[in-house]
Amino acid sequence: MSTPKPSICIECLTWPKVQALQATSPLLVLPLGATEQHGPALPINTDTVIADALCRNACERTNVAMAPVIPYTSSGGHTAKWPGTFSLTPITFIQSLVQYAKWAEATGWKKLYLVNAHAGNDAPLRVAVDQIRIELMGRLQVGYLNTFFITPEIEAHFTQDAADLHANKGECDLMLHLAPETVDQDAFDVADDPDRTTDVVFSYPVSQTSLNGTTGYPSRGNASDGQQLFEKMSVAVASKLERAKTEDAPLPQSEWGAAPEGFYI
Known about the structure:
This protein is an alpha/beta fold. The protein has a single domain (11-250), classed as Rossmann fold (3-Layer(aba) Sandwich), CATH 3.40.50.10310. 39% of the residues lie in helices and 8% in strands. The protein contains eight helices and four strands; from the N terminus they run H-E-H-E-H-E-H-E-H-H-H-H. A four-stranded parallel sheet has the order 2-1-3-4, with helices on both faces. It is globular, with a radius of gyration of 19 Å. The mean pLDDT is 96.
């Protein structure tokens, strides 16, 4: 009988086992999802399911530790028009990520990589990473990626039916592969809604651009495309993690200078 592979998901481990994992994997991956409406056909946990599954797959490929997925993030742009959305304010989300990073560093992690599967998280996530890299300079390396833009090929798949994508073919492809029982395929005939943001100058909440909470064509989704897309995404994230394992700052510490105190929120 083969020896079972050690778990890379720290939520399932005791603290001594987490400590032992840190000795071989000082890099911690934090998946970021969302809890928000995804149109008539997709469940409100779509982004969370994608973030969790993708990180599990990539972390297992690379033997990197994975933290529990965060399901409540920055979704205010969806407004309260449709039930199912729960959002933190951008500033609260930023502060929560900074606190998370400080606890990660205080408890022994040396590197933190944030894997984001929700477009609305991008702006606050970039601010949080900017703050963390300064406040914890020399103590914790931090980085992030957005799952839908990992490579040009992956981005092209996600944006083929909507540049301002949400609950579209790409996300439906993945959910039909990862959790088909949660996709309401009977609603496909009322689920599609075109991207109306192509030529706009200003930024609008979803309630001003979509009739039903969708931006794109989920009715075009299929599990086969989802399986192929998920594999490409997993390989791409795993490649990033392999690089993150050994990456150091481009310049030696003697060149860094001091981080400004009280510079950030």
